[in-house]
């Protein structure tokens, strides 16, 4: 008996966008940064310390995710705080934590 295809498949263009998003977050430091930002806003130095990396490296990860529309930033004087801009990141992190924790 042939397998039944789901009634409505997601358009390939949408799946390509999803794959790009997943490629962007598919890095241990970026996943840790997202975990932290889901709990609140953080500065680069705090995120770098939690990942045990140099601040310039954390900044690169943040820039990449911000360019992809996943993160937002706000300035408070000389400090820049980052936050999650894409609410669905919480679902992705929850899925990862359920599978790998």
From TrEMBL:
PROSITE patterns in the record: HTH_ARSR_2 (PS50987)
CDD domains, alphabetized: HTH_ARSR
SMART domains hit by this protein: HTH_ARSR
Keywords associated with the record: DNA-binding, Transcription, Transcription regulation
InterPro entries in alphabetical order: ArsR-like_HTH, HTH_ArsR_DNA-bd_dom, Metal_resp_trans_reg, WH-like_DNA-bd_sf, WH_DNA-bd_sf
Presence of the UniProt keyword NADP in the record: no
One Pfam family here: HTH_20
Span of domain HTH arsR-type: 10-101
A GO term, aspect molecular function: DNA binding
Cleavable signal peptide: none
Record-given protein name: Metalloregulator ArsR/SmtB family transcription factor
